[in-house]
Design the sequence.
């Protein structure tokens, strides 16, 4: 007979050491008495062959040295981790029986859910999960002002030994301020950087006044619908044992008592005459929401968040409202993002040159992009431009269309595939559609993006492509001259 | 917090309580950075329950209960005499953070009456979400109720910050909408849902953050004459066409000073309950709307028994089912067996032959399933054929309600 004495609460480490040793010694579950600190002196140590007052003494002492670790299936490990948190004094003995069976030909015993031992352990695991869940839910912090600034304290009475099991949850959730969780079996403290476990606390230590509680109680009362009174349901989800530490539950008796009369009062009030409000005026105010000018639209664009974060600012279109010609490019590049102006980088300079050669005055044209924010991938110090996705183009389309409505050009030049996608609402092959085109009802012209010319590797091809681009721009000019302003 | 603030909070929480969506589930797991606040766990955490049995997971409030619209079923309609209040963007942000830091909530569910214009209203809500994320480094849950008439770009901006967006359909039938919510338009509601669906799907493909918990909607039940079958039919279409994550059903609740256009008597709350059960059958159990409706009469679900039992009682020829042999689809149709129990049965079955006491350890619905299930030591002798089976199965429920 062996007597194992483990520490208070969930002594996972102690249990692990002990079970290794017991397995190495071939001790069967019926030959071991498990005892933990909180049990008191229930069992005499009379018939024990070896006794440890402390797990470490018992397990690692003597000549045997530390026992080798056990290789257990993962689900068994998970069950052990959960079940040691349970208050049941038999928890270690049950786990020992489970491990014994796993090691004696029943590796998959946990899958037989209807087995009495498995069923009981599953019930314990469920109780632990529930306890943890309720602690996540029903713990309330109260604010105290300490010299070091804000600090939050909570008092909670868990049913099982779950303090360590919930530590990560609260540390993940509340990293930015200092807090303490006090319970009757131990406490947990966070200083903004590290977790620290301490001795049990007292309820009184977590009862400072917190004015936010008044607001919380008001919210709790107001969000209750007296017409749907169902206290049984409430009690099954929020058992009474939790009530005494929840600030809002003080309101419950009153809410239940007054619910029927509130409903009656509500139904009786039905006959009251509605306030007179002039519906026409109110409804007429409604559609008045679209931006009224290009400047107003630009304010909206500038205030909007980039779809893909990273851009310095939105790059707005440039040029006179009423310009005969509008150029639509893809999206701002590195230079454009830094300067906040469209077409100022290498591609823009190339466009300037071509426009000048084709006899188009850039200051009289309107220049903009389909997408208003720079998107890039950081490679070392360089920000490498990334093509906008179809989704992003569609996202910015609403703005582009409004923008062009305000500028109202006689001809819109789509520079490259992205501009075509934005203007036509669908992808079209540039090579085949190059030239004059209707772009969703707008007179348009499709050509390549000037950056395409920059990317061509060989000189001859570049020259030929530039000449073709120039041809396109001359063509654009000819269209405008042929079609005088109406 | 000062008195007038708390008074406004009461008004704006009271005005928001008729919206049934409250869950905080579906967002990807997330924790706050070093100086941030909040996390999402993937599952819902209900921080409190009110005496109506419903949970509080989110701070559910309106930005304002002033409204230009006049939807008959709504307490905030412009012709209602209720007291009005409004919050600023700043105030909603502060309140959310204050409650969150005390571990009272999982996040914010923000809705609003329509004031000034749809865009203005939508923008206010979007700004709350943006400030929470940007300035408070808030990583908790945010659900915004989108205004379908707002400009698409605003709804899209909202999707950058919110975990879930929803647009309430409110009434399944277009003609009810016309009668009870004259300023609303079923077409623009569906168009906005469609747009949202497209954006959510795209963002998923491109691995961008855009309303990762998807979109949901709410339908009010009992304010018009739509049958349960019609309501469920609308839901099935919404699930299919827009990949909605949830459809919430809200039994029309008496409101102070209700409009005369409404039925005098509210529908039984049980109807809402049955619709939720039917919704589960639709989403998780492989039932079709027609099958569910066939369990009831005239397009209405049976209020006395749940829709699965109702279906089983009308299809006795399919039972009893052998727990040791039947396939998953059929096990899922046995009253008293939930998806979890069915999973457990399938796993355990590989190791042993199931007897009644085994099943008793796998589900709490043993009594109910006895007439429908064959186990190694149990064969319901013509129990399934008994004429009074329905009454016998009802009995325990009646007894329970005595307490
Ligand atoms: S739009 Fe209709 S449902 Fe929404 S707050 Fe206004 S009146 Fe109520």
Sequence:
């Amino acid at each position: 007979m062996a007597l194992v004495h483990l520490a208070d609460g969930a002594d996972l480490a102690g249990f692990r050491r002990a079970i290794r040793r017991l397995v190495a010694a071939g001790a069967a579950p019926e030959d071991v008495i498990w005892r933990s600190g909180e049990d008191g002196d229930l069992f005499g140590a009379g018939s024990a062959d070896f006794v440890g007052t402390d797990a470490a003494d018992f397990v690692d002492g003597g000549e045997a040295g530390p026992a080798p670790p056990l290789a257990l299936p993962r689900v068994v490990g998970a069950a052990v981790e959960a079940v040691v948190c349970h208050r049941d004094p038999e928890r270690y003995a049950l786990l020992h029986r489970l491990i014994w069976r796993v090691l004696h030909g029943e590796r998959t015993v946990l899958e037989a859910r209807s087995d009495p031992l498995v069923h009981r352990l599953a019930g314990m695991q469920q109780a632990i999960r529930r306890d943890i869940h309720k602690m996540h839910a029903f713990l309330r912090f109260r604010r105290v002002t300490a010299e070091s600034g804000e600090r939050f304290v909570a008092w909670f009475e868990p049913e099982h030994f779950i303090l360590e099991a919930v530590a990560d949850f609260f540390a993940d959730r509340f990293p930015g301020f200092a807090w303490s969780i006090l319970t009757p079996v131990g406490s947990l403290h966070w200083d903004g950087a590290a977790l620290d476990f301490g001795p049990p606390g007292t309820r009184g230590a977590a009862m400072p006044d917190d004015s936010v509680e008044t607001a919380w109680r008001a919210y709790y009362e107001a969000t209750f619908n007296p017409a749907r009174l169902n206290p049984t349901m409430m009690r099954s989800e929020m058992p009474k044992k939790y009530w005494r530490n929840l600030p809002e539950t003080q309101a419950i008796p009153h809410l239940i008592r007054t619910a029927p009369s509130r409903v009656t009062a509500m139904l009786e009030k039905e006959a009251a005459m509605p306030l007179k409000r002039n519906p026409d005026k109110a409804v007429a105010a409604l559609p008045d929401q679209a931006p009224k000018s290009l400047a107003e639209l630009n304010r909206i664009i500038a205030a909007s968040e980039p779809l893909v974060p990273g851009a310095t600012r939105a790059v707005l279109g440039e040029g006179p409202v009423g310009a005969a010609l509008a150029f639509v490019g893809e999206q701002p590049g590195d230079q454009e993002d830094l300067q906040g102006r469209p077409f100022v980088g290498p591609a823009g300079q190339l466009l300037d040159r071509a426009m000048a050669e084709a006899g188009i005055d850039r200051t009289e044209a309107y220049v903009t992009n389909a997408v208003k924010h720079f998107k890039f991938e950081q490679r070392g110090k360089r920000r490498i431009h990334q093509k906008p996705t179809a989704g992003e183009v569609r996202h910015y389309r609403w703005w582009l269309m409004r923008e062009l409505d305000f500028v109202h050009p006689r001809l819109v030049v789509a520079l490259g595939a992205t501009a075509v996608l934005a203007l036509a609402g669908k992808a079209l092959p540039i090579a085949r559609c190059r030239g004059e085109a209707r772009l969703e009802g707008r007179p348009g012209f499709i050509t390549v993006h000037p950056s395409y010319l920059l990317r061509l590797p060989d000189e001859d091809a570049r020259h030929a492509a530039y000449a073709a681009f120039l041809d396109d721009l001359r063509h654009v000019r000819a269209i405008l001259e042929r079609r005088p302003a109406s | 917090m000062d008195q007038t603030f708390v008074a406004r909070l009461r008004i704006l929480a009271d005005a928001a309580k008729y919206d049934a969506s409250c869950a905080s589930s579906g967002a990807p797991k997330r924790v706050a950075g070093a100086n941030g606040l909040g996390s999402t766990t993937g599952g819902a955490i209900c921080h409190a329950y009110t005496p109506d049995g419903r949970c509080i997971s989110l701070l559910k409030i309106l930005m304002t209960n002033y409204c230009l619209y006049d939807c008959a079923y709504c307490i905030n309609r412009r012709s209602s005499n209720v007291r009005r209040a409004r919050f600023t963007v700043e105030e909603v942000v502060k309140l959310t953070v204050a409650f969150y830091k005390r571990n009272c909530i999982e996040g914010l569910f923000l809705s609003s009456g329509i004031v000034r214009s749809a865009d203005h209203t939508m923008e206010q809500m979007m700004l709350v979400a943006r400030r929470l994320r940007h300035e408070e480094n808030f990583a908790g849950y945010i659900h915004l109720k989108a205004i379908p008439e707002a400009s698409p770009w605003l709804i899209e901006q909202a999707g950058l910050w919110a975990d879930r967006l929803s647009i309430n359909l409110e009434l399944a039938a277009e003609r009810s909408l016309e009668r009870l919510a004259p300023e609303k338009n079923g077409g623009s509601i569906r168009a906005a849902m469609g747009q949202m669906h497209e954006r959510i799907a795209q963002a998923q493909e491109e691995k961008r953050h855009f309303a990762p918990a998807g979109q949901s909607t709410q339908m009010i039940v009992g304010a018009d004459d739509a049958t349960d079958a019609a309501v469920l039919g609308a839901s099935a279409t919404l699930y299919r066409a827009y990949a909605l994550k949830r459809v919430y059903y809200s039994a029309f609740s008496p409101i102070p000073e209700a409009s005369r256009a409404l039925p005098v008597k509210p529908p039984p709350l049980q109807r809402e309950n049955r619709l939720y059960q039917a919704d589960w059958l639709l989403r998780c159990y492989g039932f079709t709307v027609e099958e569910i409706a066939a369990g009831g009469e005239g397009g209405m679900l049976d209020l006395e028994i749940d829709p699965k039992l109702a279906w089983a009682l009308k299809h006795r020829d399919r039972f009893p089912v052998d727990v040791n042999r039947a396939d998953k689809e059929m096990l899922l149709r046995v009253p008293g067996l939930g998806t979890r129990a069915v999973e457990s049965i399938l796993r355990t079955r590989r190791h042993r032959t199931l007897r009644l006491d085994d099943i008793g350890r796998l589900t709490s619905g043993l009594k109910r399933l006895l007439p429908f299930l064959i186990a190694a030591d149990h064969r319901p002798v013509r129990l399934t054929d008994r004429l009074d089976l329905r009454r016998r199965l009802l009995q325990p429920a009646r007894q329970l309600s005595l307490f």
Observations:
- The pocket of iron/sulfur cluster is lined by residues B 67, 69, 71, 74, 76-77, 113-114, 181 (CB under 6 Å).
- Chain A has a mean pLDDT of 87.
- Chain A touches chain B through 88 residues (CB under 8 Å).
